[in-house]
Amino acid sequence: MQIFTSNNVIRLLLLLTLSSILTACATKTEEVSASAPAPYLSHSGDNLGEILVTASKQSGNSSRYAAQQPVSNLNYSPEIEFDRSEYPNYTENPIKITSEEPVSTFSIDVDTSSYSLMRSQIESGALPPHEAIRTEELLNYFDYDYPVPESKDQPFLATVNVFDSPWSAPKHLLRIGIKGYDIDRTQQPDSNLVFLFDVSGSMDAENKLPLVKKSFRLLLKSLKPTDTVAMVVYAGASGVVLQPTKVKNRTEILSALNRLSAGGSTAGGAGLSLAYELANENFNKDSVNRIIMATDGDFNVGQSSNEQLIKIVEKNRNAGIYLSVLGFGGYNYQDDMMQAIAQNGNGVAAYIDTLQEAKKVLVDEATSHLFPIANDVKIQIEFNPKHVAEYRLVGYETRVLAREDFNNDKVDAGEIGAGHSVTALYEITPTNTDIRSVDPLRYASQTNTNNEATPTPESELLNDELGFLKLRYKLPGAAESLLITQPILNKENTETDKDALFAASVAAFSEILRGGKHLNNFCLEDVIKLAKQNKGVDKSGYRAEFIQLVEMAKLLDDSPSRATFLDCKK
Question: Which long-range contacts (CB under 8 A, 24 or more apart) does 33-39 make?
Fold first, then answer.
């Protein structure tokens, strides 16, 4: 006879409890599996293979800064969620001494992803990291009242003005504004588009694939019936889900779009290669051929390094196929990858955090994003040391070029789309001021003690010039560049318009978010005041939204390196 001691009873009860738990887990697993959405089989093109995309709902909160909630699911493996996003590494542009380095060269940039990413993070309750802020993308988020070219024979015009710096007077700000020629809808060529969708497991969140599908429905409404659309998806593998289809067949396109669901790992490199293969097979020389990629950038299978992906886009861009990259989501957002492939693929990068932003990018600005009017646009300024002691390019760190790159047509640069505007700011120190960041050289010649170059007889004739502006660009499909030049006249009291001062407020906010080392005591309250006074015409409400973002930033706690600028307690 077996004797049941108290210890034996306890052990038996524990075994029975454990058995019940395991049985419940197995039952729960079967229920989850049975309720999962049915997989779909993609359409397949010739020699392109097929892809089986299985939906897989994932637990977890999609909000970047959301508080962690307890999970009761026994299959859940507790992990501390943290931000795995990656951003381009860059060093802030230094102050240059004009007499030593009078020439500044950079590529234009029409990307705006940094602005909407910044907005998303502030609205989530935290200031973005320094490296996520690119001043040029904040500046170029807004439209400015620049003169528009009258003819497509001259794809863009340059506007230059000089005014007192709001944060470091008597220093000046030099603003360069470029406005592209706008193509009338009746004159627009057809678009031949390949949509490349990331449907991996990391896209299974409300602000990712569901928002992608809603966004592209908006884009379809802005396309012409004669435009062509194809769809490629990638997860653990890649495949074609829609062969090239005319937009007039809207039902067929929407059906393919609605079937998309997320699950699996991310073979982004394979997906990109397949999209280019499909675009090349269906290339139309009379249309604008473009791939539009929607992803969070989390490539974790196959060709995943930036260098490998850049090789793919570089190989195809010369064939006339443009690449635009639309970013979605957070936590694992790979901003550095987005920038790398967009910049090297003759395309633009945007970040979409709301359906309103999707409307801005894919509907309101569809013409500028879809129809290029100039490629490889470079800007070069030679400053006159007689009038400019020092200068600093505000932003464009990832777009700086070597001086010799300006005349080298093999060096890639940014593109301008129809109606696009580009804004760049320099902070300059006049020679007639005592406020300089760099001391004069002790052992310079007596004629150069003020960091000024010794004037030549020729330069004496140019005393009225602050500098000389050069713009180089290629017409779409051209191999050789064209040149535009314009002197920048030295006018001490250049009339300052509201547009220029509003742009200055945006730049100041960006500088604060990046650390604020060039702003003296200029703080967020000063930014708000400057923006409010110079908001000007604000048809879409973007400038009012900007002011609200700055006001919200004042309320957020942050590191000591930026806390000094959160209010004006000096």
Answer: 37/261
Question: Taking a C-beta distance cutoff of 8 angstroms, is the pair 454, 444 a contact?
Answer: no
Sign (positive or negative) of CA dihedral 268, 271, 273, 279: negative
User: Which helix (H) or strand (E) segment is 422 a member of?
Assistant: strand 421-430
Q: What confidence category does residue 458 fall into, taking pLDDT thresholds of 50, 70 and 90? A: low
Q: Give, to the nearest 10 degrees, the angle between helix 542-554 and helix 524-533.
A: 160
Higher per-residue pLDDT: 435 or 36: 435
Residue span of the structural domain in which 290 resides: 188-370
My answer on whether 163 and 219 are in the same domain is: no
- Look at residues 131, 155, 127, 159 and name the one whose alpha carbon lies nearest to residue 145: 159
Which residue from 64, 328, 285, 90 is spatially nearest to 196, judged by alpha carbons?
Answer: 328
Residue 241's pLDDT band (boundaries 50, 70, 90)?
very high
SS3 content of the chain, % helix, strand, coil (to 5): 35, 20, 45
What pLDDT does 557 receive? Answer: 60
Average pLDDT over residues 4-26: 48
CB 154 within 8 A of CB 373: no
DSSP class of residue 26? Answer: H
- The residues facing 470 across adjacent strands are 380, 485
**64-68, 194-198, 439-443: which has the highest mean pLDDT?**
194-198
Q: Which two tokens stand for residue 253?
A: 């396109």
381 in the same domain as 359? no
Task: Please indicate whether residue 370 or residue 82 has the higher confidence score (pLDDT).
Answer: 370
No. of helices (H) and no. of strands (E), the chain: 15, 18
How do 482-489 and 465-474 pair as beta strands?
Answer: antiparallel
Q: What is the mean pLDDT of residues 323-346?
A: 82
Last residue of a domain, one of 370, 394, 428: 370
For residue 326, the cross-strand partners are 294, 350
Residues, the chain: 570
Q: Would you say the pTM of this structure is higher than 0.85? A: no
Of 97, 476, 86, 526, the C-alpha closest to 320 is 476
Specify whether 168 is located in the same domain as 237.
no
How many domains, the chain? 2
Same domain, 197 and 215: yes
* Residue 194, strand partner residues: 230, 291
Classify residue 303: in a domain, yes or no.
Answer: yes
Question: Within a domain: residue 15?
Answer: no
